[in-house]
Every structure is written in structure tokens, then in C-alpha cells.
Design brief:
- It is a single chain.
- The chain is α+β, with helices and mostly antiparallel strands.
- The protein has one domain: Rossmann fold, CATH 3.40.50.2020.
- It is built from 2 helices and 7 strands, in the order E-E-H-E-H-E-E-E-E.
- It has a 3-stranded antiparallel sheet, with no helix packed on it.
- Helix 1 runs parallel beside helix 2.
- The termini are far apart.
- It comes from Leptospirillum ferriphilum.
Length: 110
């Protein structure tokens, strides 16, 4: 399959649980999901298909909570929003060097 510059593919995966991953592919001109809720609906369906049982859903504020809500509802388990503050690189606005959690924990990316 031949692709132009505008159709360059972005690949990645949604991760849940310790080792479970869902492969994703996206083209530059089309988002994978229309919004975060639809992403959560998709993730919930995929988790249900595995038959695995989970006790809680953790949603990282701000963007992760709208994804986590439909997952928690579909699995009928509690949702715990987590608040963290990104520690950004001074030379690159979007680059996260680590995070500071709401309870004071400091985590550095490796």
C-alpha cells in the first residue's frame, strides 16, 4: 500500500492492565476517535471482550477522566480520578520530563 505525505500513519496502542495492549493506526487527516468519550466506549468494549475482571478504573485528570467514565460505567466498577501536574521541559512545551502527583509523589520519565 502506497501512502502520500498527507497520509503518513501514526501507530500506537491503548494500554490497560499490566500487559494488555490494543494496536491503533491513524492517518494524519483523520482522528482515531471523534472525542474522548468515544475513545472510552471503544476501550470499554475491548476490555469486555477480554473477559478480564478489574476492580477500579483510574482516570488521569484532565484528559483521561472523560475516557475513563464510559469504561467505569460499562464495567460497573468505581472510577477514581487522579490529579497530576506535568513537569515539562523548558525548551519544549509538550515534552513531559515527569509528573508530580496529588499526594506529592515525584515521577521522572526514563
Amino acid at each position: 500500500m502506497k501512502s502520500s505525505e498527507n497520509e503518513r500513519k501514526i501507530t500506537g496502542c491503548l494500554t490497560y492492565g499490566a500487559y494488555t495492549r490494543i494496536p491503533l493506526t491513524q492517518t494524519m487527516d483523520r482522528p482515531i476517535f471523534s472525542d474522548r468519550t468515544s475513545a472510552g466506549d471503544f476501550l470499554a468494549r475491548k476490555i469486555l471482550e477480554t473477559g478480564k475482571i478489574f476492580d477500579v478504573v483510574l482516570g488521569l485528570a484532565r484528559g483521561g477522566v472523560p475516557v475513563a467514565v464510559p469504561v467505569a460505567k460499562s464495567l460497573h466498577i468505581p472510577l477514581f480520578p487522579m490529579i497530576a501536574r506535568k513537569i515539562g521541559a523548558p525548551w519544549e512545551k509538550e515534552l513531559a520530563l515527569g509528573a508530580l502527583s496529588e499526594n506529592g509523589g515525584l515521577y521522572w520519565n526514563r
